[in-house]
Each structure stands twice: as structure tokens, then as C-alpha cells.
Amino acid sequence: GNSVTQMEGPVTLSEEAFLTINCTYTATGYPSLFWYVQYPGEGLQLLLKATKADDKGSNKGFEATYRKETTSFHLEKGSVQVSDSAVYFCALGNQAGTALIFGKGTTLSVSS
Amino acid sequence: DAGVIQSPRHEVTEMGQEVTLRCKPISGHDYLFWYRQTMMRGLELLIYFNNNVPIDDSGMPEDRFSAKMPNASFSTLKIQPSEPRDSAVYFCASSPGGRGARNEQYFGPGTRLTVT
Question: Using a CB-CB distance cutoff of 8 angstroms, which residues of chain B are in contact with residue A105?
Fold first, then answer.
């Protein structure tokens, strides 16, 4: 079945540093791919998504490109802020397209 | 839109008591999901519904857990009897389904359950 693996954290960066959080997947077919963010004490929020190969999802300065050849969907941001400190989850659709399969989450901590 | 609404936001109960968590999905969404999040196990899908019908309950940990969706705007997750190991944050999420927003889920703020 479909599965997703994301890098373990925590990731600790200084403000304005470049961010990469790796995510790779195993899937049958061409599922949609997602990044969700969870701020302390809150529920998960959709950050960005891509629905087919070579699509680039982007939001709030974050980007991720659906790479079919490397089965990856790495999250990047050119210059992180303290307010980006959160847990980031990579996810993909299940085969039926009815539910999401989430990675274990990566904690990002940004200091000023 | 108010988003997914969950109640209560916090629940503290004693072992052996019945606990009922409530969720109101976004109007018009066909799918509703219940998740549990703990430090040890991360985010786990417990059960999900499509058009009020349970589709996959393989994530429900044991018979003490049950979920219902009597109509399109309301769902409950019940634990009876509760145990300390049930302490977690429980999230409800809903999804519009359909090809255009396939898989996209919207999460509620969660219910933090503490069983003493």
C-alpha cells in the first residue's frame, strides 16, 4: 500500500536560514501529495499540495515539487522565521483517494 | 465558514468513566475522520466516514472505542470505559471528497483528553 517517510527531527535553525525537510513516498498510481503544519496547541493546517508529477505547491514562502522520478516531495523555504516553528507533516492520498496517510512529523524550531 | 468544530476542547476524567467527544464537520463535506495524536505513536487514523457511513474502522484500538455519525453535521467518538493510556489529543477532520479537492482534509482544533 501507499506509504510516506519523512526525515526525523528536530530541525533547529537560526532565523533567515534555508529549510529543507525531506519526504519520500511509495505509492501505486499517482496520489496527491500534501504538506500540513501544526502550530503548538492547534490542529493540522494544510500548507500546500500537488496533485500530479512536476507540480509545485507553494504557500507562505514554502515550496514543494512532486518528483515522480525520485518519489519525493521535499519541503523548502528560503528564509525561515521564528513564527515558522511548528511540526510539519508530509502526507499522500491512499489508493482509493478517500483518506490521507501521514508521515511521523518533523519538528522545526527557529531561533532569533 | 466556522471550520471543523470539536467539543469539548479539554476533558479530564477518571479511569473507568465514559467519555464522549463531539465533532461538527464543515458543511457540505462528505468525509469525516477521527484521529488520535500522542507523543509515542504520532498521528493515528482511527476511523472515517463517507456520507455518514463508516468506511474503515481498522484503526480503532479496541472495542472500548466506538464512533457514530447520525447525520451529516455531527459525529461522536465514545470511549467506554476509559483508561489512562487513552490520554491523547483527538482530532476530527472533514474532506469535501470529489476530484477537485481529492483527499484534502480540514482539521478541527482537537480535544485534549486526560484520563487519571
Answer: 42-43
